[in-house]
Specification:
4 strands; globular; 229 residues; mainly alpha; two-stranded antiparallel ribbon; disordered N terminus; 2 domains; two-stranded antiparallel sheet
Amino acid sequence: MPLTGEQSASVAVPVARQRRPRRSTVRHGQASCADYGCARAECRQAALRARRQRERDRARGLPARVPPHAAARWAVRLRGQGMSAQDIADRAGLSVTLVRRVLRTPAHDTTAPDIARTSADAILGIPLPHRRNPGTPGLTDSAEASRLLADLARAGWPATTLAQRLDVNPRTVAEVRDKRPRLHLDLALRISRLHRDLINFNPAGYGIHPTDIARTRAAAARRMAATAT
């Protein structure tokens, strides 16, 4: 039966949402997550904060989008202190894809696309971390660090636990273990020390749940089998 005018006015029309890309790295708690239709309170609140910030900027006559160069320079400094793109993204509440794009911005490229002012401010607001080993800057091959992390995984140490002890994101641990060709020497030394401290101990004695230990060992075995073929 067709709706009357009064009935049709009371029917809520669904709001069009952006389609979340298949490989999206946006996570809960980020404003972009609400843009994709997530109804979690933390995501909606993040979107609300971002919208209010844009409104304040507009009221002050500030442009909504700005050149990325200042944020890019600061992001490079953060990376130089041992933070990965994922670490920066987590601290800023941004997608790692955006952070990586900012990091690739050429220093004097006037054609680089602008980014949202709120995104630039989020990156610029990250404090410079204290480098644990100021005398060990630079990059090194990841082969040894990858081997040590794989060794810890076979022993049942989850990436999340290792990441907490290394003060990095779990994805950074996985990237170094599986595919990143180079890493900061500072992080390589921390991985070496962590391996020395943990490899002879049972993860269960450190509060790691037996299920997590078994899952970590099984995943490590699958990775080893895959590389052997």
